[in-house]
What does this fold into?
Amino acid sequence: MASSTETGNVTGTKDKDYNLIWFIEACLSNALRMESYIQDAERENDTEVVELFRKAQADSRKGAELGKQLLRTRLSS
It folds into this structure.
């Protein structure tokens, strides 16, 4: 359900743009976090968990790249 309250007047950035920026940051932050989790699993020689976290890291990187591409397009318009 969509909210009818635009908070861009508070932040100076429309919600949809803020959300896109937030999404990119969250993806990048998660990719960094996964690196730490991968190292923990590698120390324990848990290859299944390493594989899971590597996939999650790749998905986070992909999400960030897609978001950055969209943001670039919108900023250049």
In short: The helical segments are 8-11, 15-43, 47-76. The chain has a mean pLDDT of 93.
